[in-house]
Amino acid sequence: MVIVLVVAVTAGYLAGGRLHRLADLRLRGSWLLLVAVAFAPLGFGGGGRAGTVATVAAGLLLLGFLIVNVVAQRGGVRAAFALMAAGWLLNLTVITANGAMPTPARVLAGPEWWPNLWLTPHLAEHAPIDSTTRLVWLADSIELRLPHVLVPVSLGDLLLVAGVIALVVTAMRRRVAADGAGPRS
Description:
The protein is mainly alpha-helical. The protein has helices spanning about 1-15, 30-45, 50-70, 75-100, 105-110, 115-120, 155-175; strands at about 100-105, 125-130, 140-145, 150-155. Helix 4 packs antiparallel against helix 7 (about 155-175).
């Protein structure tokens, strides 16, 4: 996620934006995000039904936060939240269907996997893709190879990343209207 934010801020600057304008972004439903963050740790390591329920509950709360902002925002900020909501919904769907994020077994067992725990923390635990895996096309089956790191991503992850970059770039480029009417997109 850190890499995505660095790319987003760099793209924002290249597009003529300014970092301080991110402070003008008014998020709605922040309480949903806070409750989701409180639920998320309950899904880690617990496994089983309770862990899956906690993960899905946190995921639904986060999806609610994203949808509230799709409705409340305008212009490019709305489009960015829509991308993030679509990506999150795809990830939540495959996690709910399988109890974890399916990932190729060779990726989970490889020596390149451990840096992913630091580079791209996930809401859900991962499980190897096997013959019982549902919705494999939504799984973390796209493999991005970086030097000494193998990062498995899903279609939902790609939409989330695109949404985060679009949100940061758009917010960095927004100017507050001189008449005090609020931000323009």
